[in-house]
Amino acid sequence: MSKCAGSCCAVFYISKTAEEMKADADTIMDGAYIADMLIPLSGEETRDRVRRFGVGGSESNLAEDEYEGHRFTCRHWDEDTRLCTDYENRPEMCRDYPYHHECRHGCDYTSADETRAKWWGIKARRRLFSPNCLGMRELERDRRRR
Questions:
Q1: What are 3-44's pLDDT values in tens digits?
Q2: C-alpha closest to that of 98 among 125, 72, 116, 83
């Protein structure tokens, strides 16, 4: 049994703002679902959630001003149980987390080999075609910090 505490749902980063997600929902896999689940967080709300839910990793830096408009929590995450209230319908980005790496939140869950391979391929394509895309800079910065 996994010891996941749902920290990845308490505070997370998306490269688009909530408004951009709504506008682009038809062009993104599970876009309408994701746009609906996003609850934008202020810097203070982010700091509070990091403290209350023991969020670590790069998410603990999301309170910085540079992330304004790109930090969220999920409307389907129950703060008391720390479980997803719509687990069976969650989008691919949630099903596949932690993508191609170990969970940085102390969770013992590891993605299946095919999921890891898929996300390594996505990361490689982003680096090849758009090395400065929002999100890749943060991934690289986090990698260098380790």
A1: 677 777 888 888 889 999 999 989 888 889 999 999 999 999
A2: 116
Question: 75 — alpha (psi -120 to 50), left (phi > 0) or beta?
Answer: alpha
DSSP string, 48-108: HHHHHHT--GGGGGTTSGGGTTSEEEETTEETTTTEETTGGG--HHHHSTTTTS--TTS--
pTM: 0.71
Please provide the distance, in angstroms rounded to a whole number, between the alpha carbons at the two ends of the chain: 28
Looking at residue 30, the DSSP 8-state letter turns out to be: T
Could you tell me which of 115, 9, 116 has the C-alpha nearest to residue 53? Answer: 9
| Cα(125)–Cα(140) distance, integer angstroms | 14
